[in-house]
Design a protein that fits this description.
seven-stranded parallel sheet; Rossmann fold; 385 residues; alpha/beta; 43% helix; 15 helices; six-stranded parallel sheet
Length: 385
C-alpha cells in the first residue's frame, strides 16, 4: 500500500517552529510521506535565510519558492501572494500531494490554500477558528477554514467556531497547539549557553520582545515604535528583540529596532531569527514577554511567564491568565504590573489552555487514518435544532 503524501508549505520562521514536531512525526510515520515547500521569508536574506535551519534540522525541502517582493507596502504583499499562487501551482503539479497541510493565517498560506483548492487537493488546516481582530490574518484564517477539509483546532472553543461556519463535526478535531509540543519535548539551552551564543547577557531583569505590524490599523508606525522604545528604556530592562514578519510596514519596524539596539548594545540585542530552540530557551529565562505575537498568548503560559500584549493584533484570542492587555500609551504601567510580585505569583499556578504537548501525535494519527475528500456538505446548524 502506497504512503499518503502530505505536503507542508511554510513561509516563516515562527510557523516552521510550530510545524517542527508534526514534521518529525510525519517523517517517522510508516503510512505517510513528507513533502516540504519553503516560501517567502525562508528564502529572504533580509529575514535570515531560515530555509537553512530547516535543512539543518534534517528535512529535505522539495521546492523553494522565492515569492517575496522586497517592498514595505500592502501592494507588495498582494503581489507576493499572487507570485506564490503562480509558483505553487507548478510545485503541486510536480509533487502530486494527497493532502496539503497548512498552519495559521499568513498571506502565502492563503495562496497555498487557494492553489490547492483549485487543483482539487484536500487541505488540512491547523489553528483555525481563532480570532485576532487587529490583523488581516483574521479574514485569511477564516477563508482558509472554508477551503479546508480537515481542521485541527487548539481549543474546544475554536472547534465550536468552525462548526458554526458550517463544517461537519467528523472533520473537526481539537488536538491542541503544536507549539506546546516543543516546550515539552525540546531540551532547552542552559542560560549561559544561550548568552554565549547571542553574545549578550540577560542581566538582572530582561524581556523578550516581538512586535508585528497591525495590518488593520492606520496609526503612524514610526511614532508608535518611538513610544514603545521610550517605555522599554524607562523600564530599565535588558531586551532581546526578534524581527517583525514580512507584512506591510514590517521592514520599517525592523529598521527602527536595529537603530534602537545600536544605541545600547549591552542592554539591547536584535536577532533576525532565533529559531525555535533559542526562542523558547529565551522565553524560559526572561522575566516578561512584550509585544503582540501569538507566542505570548499561546506558548508563554507553559513557562508561567507574564506577558504584556500591546494593541489589538491578538484581540479575541483566548488567554490563560498570564496576559496584560494594554495600548501603547499605557505600556510603561503594564510592564510595571507584569513585573510586580502580585502578578508574577498569579502566573505561577496557571495551566495552559492550549494543550499538554500531544498535538503532533493527534494530528499525524488523523493524517494516517481518516478518509480524504474534497467534496464538503455545508452543515446548517439551525436546521439541527
Amino acid at each position: 500500500m502506497s504512503k499518503r503524501k502530505v505536503c507542508v508549505v511554510t513561509g516563516t520562521r515562527a510557523e516552521y517552529g510550530l510545524f517542527y514536531p508534526i514534521l518529525k512525526k510525519i517523517q517517522a510515520s510508516p503510512a505517510l510521506e513528507l513533502q516540504l515547500i519553503a516560501t517567502t521569508m525562508h528564502l529572504s536574506e533580509e529575514f535570515g535565510l531560515t530555509y537553512k535551519q530547516i535543512e539543518e534540522d534534517g528535512f529535505v525541502i522539495d521546492d523553494k519558492i522565492e515569492n517575496l517582493i522586497a517592498s514595505d507596502s500592502s501592494a507588495a504583499v498582494a503581489k507576493s501572494a499572487a507570485l506564490a499562487t503562480l509558483l505553487l501551482s507548478d510545485s503541486f503539479k510536480r509533487l502530486k500531494p494527497d493532502v496539503l497541510l497548512l498552519l495559521g493565517d499568513r498571506f502565502e498560506t492563503h495562496a497555498a490554500a487557494t492553489t490547492a483548492m483549485l487543483m482539487n487537493i484536500p487541505i488540512a488546516h491547523i489553528h483555525g477558528g481563532e480570532i485576532t481582530e487587529g490583523a488581516v490574518d483574521e479574514q485569511i484564517r477564516h477563508a482558509i477554514t472554508k477551503m479546508s477539509y480537515w481542521h485541527f483546532t487548539a481549543t474546544e472553543v475554536y472547534k465550536e467556531r468552525i462548526l458554526q461556519m458550517g463544517e461537519a463535526s467528523e472533520r473537526v478535531f481539537c488536538c491542541g497547539a503544536p507549539g506546546i509540543d516543543n516546550i515539552v519535548n525540546l531540551k532547552l539551552l542552559e542560560k549561559e549557553e544561550l548568552e554565549d551564543d547571542l553574545n549578550w547577557k540577560f542581566g538582572s531583569k530582561s524581556a523578550l520582545f516581538t512586535y508585528h505590524p497591525v495590518t488593520l490599523d492606520n496609526s503612524n508606525v514610526s511614532n508608535d515604535m518611538e513610544k514603545i522604545f521610550n517605555a522599554l528604556a524607562a523600564s530599565n530592562l535588558n531586551v532581546l528583540f526578534t524581527y517583525a514578519n514580512a507584512d506591510d510596514n514590517g521592514r520599517l519596524i525592523n529598521q527602527l529596532i536595529e537603530r534602537f539596539c545600536h544605541s545600547n548594545p549591552v542592554k539591547y540585542r536584535v536577532e533576525k531569527s532565533l529559531g525555535q530552540l533559542r526562542y523558547l530557551s529565551a522565553m524560559n529565562y526572561v522575566d516578561v514577554l512584550i509585544g503582540n505575537t501569538s507566542s505570548g498568548i499561546i506558548e508563554a503560559a507553559s513557562f508561567h511567564k507574564p506577558v504584556v500584549n500591546i494593541g489589538t493584533r491578538q484581540k479575541g484570542r483566548l488567554q490563560s491568565g498570564n496576559v496584560i492587555d494594554c495600548d501603547i500609551k499605557s505600556l510603561g504601567s503594564a510592564i510595571t504590573k507584569a513585573l510586580s510580585r502580585d502578578f508574577t505569583c498569579k502566573c505561577n499556578p496557571i495551566e495552559n489552555i492550549y494543550g499538554d504537548g500531544n498535538a503532533a501525535a493527534c494530528i499525524v494519527d488523523i493524517l494516517e487514518r481518516e478518509p480524504l475528500g474534497v467534496i464538503k456538505k455545508f452543515v446548517d446548524r439551525k436546521s439541527e435544532r
